[in-house]
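Hi X.,

You mentioned you wanted examples for the new student's onboarding notes, showing what a folding record looks like when two proteins sit in one file. Here is a clean example. The first protein comes first, with its sequence line followed by its structure tokens.
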Amino acid sequence: MPAIVVLGAQWGDEGKGKATDLLGGQVDYVVKYNGGNNAGHTIVVDGEKYALHLLPSGILSPGVVPVIGNGVVVDLGVLFGEIDAISARGVDTSKLLVSGNAHVITSYHTTIDKVGERFLGDAKIGTTGRGIGPAYADKISRVGVRVQDLFDEKILRQKVEGALDQKNQLLVKAFNRKALSVDAVVDELLEHTERLRPMVADTSLLLAQALDRREVVLLEGGQATMLDVDHGSYPFVTSSNPTAGGACTGSGIPPTRLDRVVAIVKAYTTRVGSGPFPTELTDQVGERLRANGGEFGTTTGRPRRCGWYDAVVARYAARINGVTDFVLTKLDVLTGFETIPVCVGYRVGDTVYDEMPMSQTDFHHAVPVYEEFPGWDEDITAARSLDDLPKNARNYVEAVEAMTSVPISVVGVGPGRDESIVVRSLV
């Protein structure tokens, strides 16, 4: 049985949580493999809305084992706050597993993230201020704190002391802030030790054993392809690898065991934070997309920048990730538009690109080349097959599918769990 990757094909917020939840009853494990609480999934189940940040979407599916993989950075206070919040609503969280190799976000990471962004001024990246980047920086610099370190106070204290030797210099001398106390940081982390202990496991081993038993493992990416630190619109990216390669390194599952790569792509495009966005609409049309689609961040509440569908980005995501299936979400948001433009290429000076430009400069100056499609006015939220869609809506789906040469296996026609057209099974 397969390991399936579910990831975002744009700049995030494509509806990955709904796609993962749609598969929940057919899989045995759902693994979050990258990122932290800087992103969120909003899932609607039986009219109930759940906003998840650190927890894998599979937490809402009975029988599924949710796993926080080694590639995630974990704010323990946020984790337990989220567990308490959904437990109070009757969700069983007792099966949750956390990799002992996952890194921990400490209070000094969030402090440095926030003051660092303010220090950058107009050159800021647009982070959420939740310590994600500084935690990954410490991981790569080999001074990070891992989940397993909380069970050896001597090692934990040594690591925190080593990190604060440098970071307090930065806080005091560069940012004019007070130095942080080693004892305070260590004590704050140790508060979580006993509650955390039963959840911690060698998740890489457990997932390998699950695949050996022919169970289905779903690997869930946070953020999206265009926010990948290697392959995204750098430097306006996240600090991890949401792409399919990151699914392997962030979970400990080798690429030879991946069976399918499912990419979620919105029927239009959004992004949060700074950076280039070729199809962005800064007029009333963009406001209409934002209002119709409820385009405000699950984690931050920030209004998302909105624009038309970008086939260049979709083709790039298909290539980088080896996408086998697309899930097209929020088609219903386009209802009521007389015409719907789709970006089929970029014009940079006298050159037209139908693939992603190599340089940041060219991408920054890219002007979209549009092909227009007739819209529709009919309510499509009750559609459960492509034949149920109005002709123009179906033509739109078929056109964007042809632009990537990857099949669209699911079409989202509303926010509810059952408001989807399943063209072919993802498992």
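Then the second protein repeats the pattern, sequence line and then tokens:
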Amino acid sequence: MSVVDTLPSVRGKLTENANLAKLVWFKSGGLAQWLFEPKDIDDLQQFLRELPAEIPIWPLGLGSNLIIRDGGIQGVVVRLGKAFAAVETVSKGTFGIDDILICGAGAPGISAASMARDHGIAGMEFLRGIPGTIGGAVRMNAGAYGREMKDILESADVVLRDGTLVTIPLADMGYTYRHSKLPAGSIVVAAKLRGKSGDPETIGAEMQRIADEREASQPLRTKTGGSTFKNPDDKKAWQLVDEAGCRGLQIGQAQVSEKHCNFLINLGGATSVDIEALGEEVRKRVKAHSGVDLQWEIQRVGEVL
């Protein structure tokens, strides 16, 4: 029986052979066999309950830290849209000491940071520098400017592969550097974040500092995937890449950014094969030069043509 014969009915949008390249920052890669954009949590749960267990599920956020390989993704890619992007519930924590922000997994990091600022919640300014969604940030323990999701997450609402909705506290996330132990096939749908009371103007100033620093140091206005490699202990990935002579290195239309060496960019016609091959060449040269085995931070998914 084919996948076509077994997909459940949905209230949201279900697209066959969906073009994923337009949904990711690199603007490269193949098709999703199916792209599911659920109408709400109930729609997502029902779909997963009825979907045969052998059909793989893969969640897609804003596509900012991702290489979709040119052969595309088999199974179902789940993309959470506006129904999951609300950042609307703000309440005082116990005794008013802490401030709690609740946001949908489809909300961009900047939306959460802005809501926190507007309500005087400090400690979430770094989300201004996270280019993806809250759901993706929760899954990979995203971080920037000295803070990570583990520093502000209280709990996450997650729909498991069988459609069950559970709340997972921080202690059970299994966080390490850019990694969580969320179950395979599970999808983050909401997160509860904890901060401290602060002055909106001070918070806003720090967010602006982060925005200005990113603009000055990163190739934000290019087709890129964000930070490519994880920082090794006590080292900076960009510096290792630079010292290995990889600044500006190019394979096809894929290039190591000359502005920031830990960014790969698509000059216009790069395939995902080009981009991934360039990353592997950088890893090879860094290993030869410094002995450091750089690890990918960008997630690479799908089939190779």
